[in-house]
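Page 42, continued from yesterday. The earlier attempt failed because a stray header line got pasted into the input along with the sequence. Redoing it now with the clean sequence only.
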Amino acid sequence: MNEIKLVDIDLNLDVFEDEYLENDIVEFENNLTEKEFEALREYVIQSKDEGNYFKCEIYSEIKTVRFGVVSHRAVDDKVQVRGSIVLESYDQNDEKSRYADNHKSNLVKELITTKIKYDNLVAALLEKNIFTKEEVEKINNVSHKELLGQDFNYRTF
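This time it went through. Structure tokens are written below.
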């Protein structure tokens, strides 16, 4: 079995698509226990936050890599994870990545940033008793019609 081993957290991941030698990107897909998922989650966040490459065993060889996109969803009593491991050599290539101008990724990043700021703002307003919980609930109650109206307004060309 083709396997990726995250040495630092002693976690094995199954290679999903065997295009390793062509693109210096290895994709994985696994069903993990909650404990394994939490370890992976923390490791992904830490490595991306620090912007560091890390050592990883791929096809029984130690490589210097970073995480690409990693996503997950609950499946029965497990967490299914999909993602990619990107070799350092890929980043050193002058060829532009097919993900370099990914509009959807940029929107998701902006949405997440806005959500975090919103949550922080609401928490501060509640803490200072500027808003009540009921007022926050009213603000958060967005009707389907309002959503459709804003969606229509944003779909311009």
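Notes: The first strand starts at residue 3 and ends at 6.
Reminder to self: strip header lines before submitting.
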